[in-house]
Amino acid sequence: MLVLFDTNIILDVLEKRLPFYDSSKSILESCVSGNVTGYIALHSISNIFYILRKRYSAADRRKLLLDILDLLQVAGADQESVLAKRGFFRL
Description:
Elements: E1 2-5, H1 7-14, H2 21-33, E2 37-41, H3 42-51, H4 58-71, E3 72-75, H5 79-83
Parallel strand pairs: 1-2, 2-3
Helix pairs in contact: 1-2
């Protein structure tokens, strides 16, 4: 199963935010067990780095994100692949 992890799921785990911490941690742990192939959007990485700035040093934030990237693959898109889906933008 492929899962795209929202920024908030990652923040739930990193900041131990209740009441979502246990559920978010559980689905993230499924990546460790190999039951799920997890992805994170490229923009989520910079957003998480910024959001955690008040709580963690830059070095600690880098370490946290590198740990997350050991579990998740970065999902991204280039301009060519987005433009190939032009019909998506039609109203």
